[in-house]
Amino acid sequence: MSTRIAFLKGHGTENDFVIIPDPENVIDLPPAAVTTLCDRRAGIGGDGLLHVVRSAAHPEAQGMAAEAEWFMDYRNGDGSIAEMCGNGVRVFVRYLQHAGHVTEGDIAVATRGGVKTVHLAKDGDITVGMGKAILPEGDVTVSVGERSWPARNVNMGNPHAVAFVDDLAHAGNLFTPPSFSPASAYPDGVNAEFVADRGPRHVALRVHERGAGETRSCGTGACAVAVAAARRDGADPAVTGTPATYTVDVPGGRLVITVRPDGEIEMTGPAVIVAEGEIDADWWAASRR
Ligand SMILES: N[C@@H](CCC[C@H](N)C(=O)O)C(=O)O
User: Fold this and answer.
1) Is the CB of residue 209 below 6 angstroms from any atom belonging to ligand 1?
2) Does ligand 1 have an atom closer than 6 angstroms to the CB of 82?
3) What CA–CA distance (Å, rounded) separates 271 from 258?
4) What ipTM did this prediction achieve?
């Protein structure tokens, strides 16, 4: 492996990522390397890492290579692997555009949550076909400090627990993860969204992400929230036959989510490349000892 490793930094509604372009999948990225790169003091800093690999070169994506040239090998900032990242997939495609790998149009991206179609315009916001949500049955309670709320399970490829609250401040500082009852509800961990109403079809959320802590946004989380809100509001498109569009404010900006009668979900939001550079070879070598 060459010691010259390129990186970029990007964000989507301030959910920020270290981007490591590695088309042929030759860079060794064990969890410790990911945590070091995502460290905000000793590394580059990010909620997660987007490892950009050709699908044909990655064992987890070879089966999707005929449909999607590129695989988003997404890692959480703590080094763990997640199935999907909604903000990440927009930033991933913004990177592909920046690098000249794709131009405007519909871009298929392989993820662990399946192939996603991303609509890319020359500039402006990016729309992603996020697929359908699964709503596992089961009563779950989420607690922060002295407060508890019922939570709705929504799986967007990755797991979410959505709780409607009167005031986002009631979720506390979220320095520690919320707790769940039953404690066995999420054996693989969960992303927890706390949601407050802002107006008709307009909500705001805070999120505690599995593998990252509180972040400024979560794209899959915003989709999970729109699905849960539509059910709560009697606007479930599967029942009404009419699409439901929700504006979801996150601490880092705004996402717009549309749920269609067939269950397909579209997410629209920004994606920004902030910087690019080269990782210092000595730092990289020392950080891996
Ligand atoms: N921020 C992401 C979600 C990233 C993965 C999540 N932390 C998990 O472990 O499932 C998004 O924008 O969807």
Assistant:
1) yes
2) yes
3) 18
4) 0.99
